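[Automated response] Your request has been received and processed.

Submitted sequence:
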Amino acid sequence: MKKVLLLLTLTTISFVWAQEDYLDDYNTNHTTNTAGDEIITNEPFVIAEITGTTNPEFTDNNPDQDMTASAEAMMSKFYKKLNIPVWYRWKEFSFNATLPYFLSREETWSGNTASGLGDISIGAGYGKYLPDHNLYLDTNVNIKLPTGNDEADAGDGVKISLTTETTDITGALSAYYFMDEFTFRGNIIYTMNGTFEDDFDNETDRGDDFILNAGADYRWQYNLTFGLNANYGIHFASEFNGDEDNTKTIFMDIKPVVKYPISLFEFVVGAKIPLYTDIPDDDFNDGNRNMSFFFRTNYRIF
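Generated structure:
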């Protein structure tokens, strides 16, 4: 079983580099709100303490609290973004905030690029470890605020929006089950996306998002951990002035990751690989979405 999971993970990572990027408006419209991805990727640090995958330097004299700051670089065909997440845990409660900055975001049709601040998100959660059942349960609520620049200068008179212009609320339920060298996880995530008005008082409801995630980590020797997640998601149809358009999207992704701790740092590298996309009336893109890659460094402050 261990060898099979390890082989599957390595094969998936190799598969990433053989894929091709595609032009797709869906990609550029969904780079500003990645709350679902963040909740799946940024598991509570207490998980590392429970599984024993953290280094001894992480262990302090006060197990009731810890604080972790991270830097995460994300890259896809049409954007490069830097996220700065901060997580603080006090007993069973946790608080988090993420500051995103677009190093570059390309306007799909013109090819022009712009950079600037994206939409900041803040959140809070509650987690409980049940040692008798080898289970950790966690709930999180995340609010994304429209703080990004909606008219970033891309040259040649082109303006690019780095914000969804909406206040979005994401709720998540997560479960982690521990068995020897394996950690199994599951997430249920729902995002209530807001509405915005254009200069002509037209109102757009962006449609909500629903994600189911299941995955597993395998703790190998040399402090290496290999993980694989599978996502099934629905982006519900948006509405323009109360009329529903035909933009409901159903998708499936896999996310291979590799983690390695050194002293007070943890390094994580991974990718999101689209497997299936159903976008109605998408004759131009044939339902294709871009892969994205990320590299993350976590630092345990205390």
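Summary generated for your ticket: Residues 97 and 184 are 26 Å apart (CA to CA). Confidence is low (pLDDT under 50) at residues 4-28.
If you did not submit this request, please reply to this message.
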